[in-house]
Design a protein that fits this description.
Elements (H helix, E strand, L loop, with lengths): L6 H14 L4 E5 L2 E5 L56 E7 L17 H8 L10 E11 H7 L9 H4 L5
Antiparallel strand pairs: 1-2, 3-4
Length: 170
């Protein structure tokens, strides 16, 4: 024996869906009600300075006083087009330091015992460089061009950078 559907249950279910999704399309197919719910587009803000209570995107939020809509998000700025005055290059000045194991380091060699305060103080002034060498922050080498230094296999001062000294054709 088949159970007869309770019309009151169907009415409550339909009302529940209609309350949650007022724009939903409803249709009855062979005594079965189906609901098609389209994903709603997110609400957009009204112009900046509009009363937030009237803005669909601000609805349900608690903006700070005064209750004004912040407006639609700003469009992302277009990237600056490269010009002859702003070349696209990885060449740039970087501060370089002499190695901690050189005679230019005023602190002397690394202390043997790494559990002492002296070792802590020494390591504070001698961080690891990207080339896995401890450098002395108190022995600056000056600005170098990392790109040229890598290309030439030796330190290249920023003043001698290939890209910096190149003159654009007129």
């Amino acid at each position: 024996m088949q159970r007869r559907p309770d019309p009151a249950v169907a009415t409550r279910r339909r009302a529940s869906v209609t309350r949650r999704h007022p724009d939903a399309e409803t249709r009855t197919v062979r005594k079965t009600t189906t609901y098609t719910v389209e994903p709603a587009e997110p609400p957009t803000h009204l112009p900046k300075g509009t009363n937030a209570e009237d803005c669909p995107a601000c609805k349900g939020t608690n903006p700070p006083y005064p209750f004004l809509c912040p407006g639609p998000p700003a469009a992302p700025a277009a990237p600056e087009e490269p010009t002859m005055t702003t070349p696209v290059t990885d060449h740039h000045p970087e501060p370089w330091f002499w190695g901690a194991d050189t005679d230019r380091c005023p602190h002397g060699p690394e202390p043997e015992d790494d559990t002492t305060d002296a070792w802590e103080q020494w390591t504070d002034r001698h961080p690891w460089s990207p080339q896995d060498v401890r450098v002395c922050l108190d022995a600056p080498m000056g600005d170098q061009c990392a790109e040229c230094s890598e290309e030439h296999g030796e330190n290249v001062p920023w003043a001698d950078c290939d890209e910096r000294t190149a003159t654009p054709a007129a």
